[in-house]
Amino acid sequence: MISKKPTLKKLSPSFGSSLLVNQHIKKVDKNDAYWHFHPELELVYVNKGQGKTHIGNHLSYFNNSQLILIGSNLPHNGFTDRLTANGMETTIHFKSDFLGKDFADIPEMSSVMALFHRAKKGIRFHVETKKIIGPKIDNLTEYAGLERVLKFLEILNFLSHTDDYSLLNADGFAFEADAQDSAKIATIIKHVNTNFQSHISLDEIADKVSMTVPAFCRYFKKATGKTFTQVVNEYRVVHATKLLSEESQMSITDICFECGFNNFSHFNKTFNEITGKSASNYRKEIKLIIE
């Protein structure tokens, strides 16, 4: 399964801090790599690792370092399936106005606020930026208080001025939901995560949130910008990319049915629409990356 217990994730910085900085050097528990979203932005740096990147409607696999900025309420999975030798992952969670609303509005912060706006689509920074900024992110844990904030502002300032990046989520997929809606979305996505390998009827999922089918379809499209079928198919394709990325020699036909598709031509068409390539080409490209 690709994820468990997806939800609106509540994050709390340590007392006396406006930033939440976490760092680990061991393999990530896959139970922690669930599909979630939160109002805080997230800057994540993996210096050596392998895994899947699933941010909004963006799906890819990485076999090296990663430096990504995720915007507010943009759904994403945990990143690292496995940290390689000397691997470390550092994440920083922060609100866009972590220094106060007035400070966010000053002219000197305009480029940083523009960076936060771009982050709503997910930003992957490239090699040169990773070389410069990656170590600075790793070293943030060595500082505390105002010194940590100043070091973090230096990082944000650099990222706001570089053009060494790609946007990941060009179609947009952020949830602009209130707390009650977030709870409903969490219930829906949790059910999808648990059951995407089987058929999920609209009657079944609408009943989960005590709605009629027409009301559910309207609600879900408004909250996510997508139909329920589109989201289920994305989950199935994410799982397919995972199986295609593994060293197993599972056939593409078997992967199709393992992911919940009951028609091979429909699987091929959907996989191509979501990833921009065929399943066989995806597998070939992943093998080249790993080699």
CATH architecture of the largest domain: Sandwich
Percent range for helical residues?
40-55%
Termini gap: 26 Å
In the CATH scheme, the class of the largest domain would be Mainly Beta
Would you mind describing this structure in some detail?
A hairpin with a 2-residue loop joins strand 5 and strand 6 (about 60). This protein has eleven helices and eleven strands. With about 290 residues, it is α+β, with helices and mostly antiparallel strands. Helix 2 packs across helix 4 (about 145-160) and helix 8 crosses helix 11 (about 280-290). The protein is globular. The strands form three sheets. It has a six-stranded antiparallel beta sheet, covered by helices on one side. Strands 6-5-8 form a three-stranded antiparallel beta sheet, covered by helices on one side. It has two domains: about 5-165, Jelly Rolls; about 180-290, Arc Repressor Mutant, subunit A, CATH 1.10.10.60. Helices cover about 45% and strands about 15% of the residues. The two termini are about 25 Å apart. It has helices spanning about 100-105, 110-120, 125-140, 145-160, 180-195, 200-210, 215-225, 230-245, 250-260, 265-275, 280-290, and strands spanning about 5-10, 20-25, 35, 40-45, 50-55, 60, 65-70, 80-85, 90-95, 125, 165.
